[in-house]
Specification:
Blueprint lengths: L1 H15 L4 E9 L5 E9 L1 H9 L6 E4 L1
Antiparallel strand pairs: 1-2, 1-3
Length: about 60
């Protein structure tokens, strides 16, 4: 019985790790040195990371 409860609790904790959250993406212009941040709402970490790094180019670097 203890094993069942332990594994149930472990699965519940893993399911919370993929919850959708709000993330802040910060982009910095490498030439001018200025930066700006944008909040990405209701996304998983993977979705937010993909969207954030899509702003990278030769002059700009973005990260969560």
């Amino acid at each position: 019985m203890k094993k069942v409860l332990f594994f149930s609790a472990a699965i519940a904790m893993l399911s919370f790790s993929s919850c959708k959250k709000n993330w802040v993406c910060t982009c910095t212009n490498n030439v001018k040195g200025d930066s700006h941040s944008e909040t990405l709402y209701n996304m998983t970490a993977g979705q937010a990371s993909t969207l954030c790094v899509a702003g990278n180019d030769a002059n700009t670097s973005c990260k969560l």
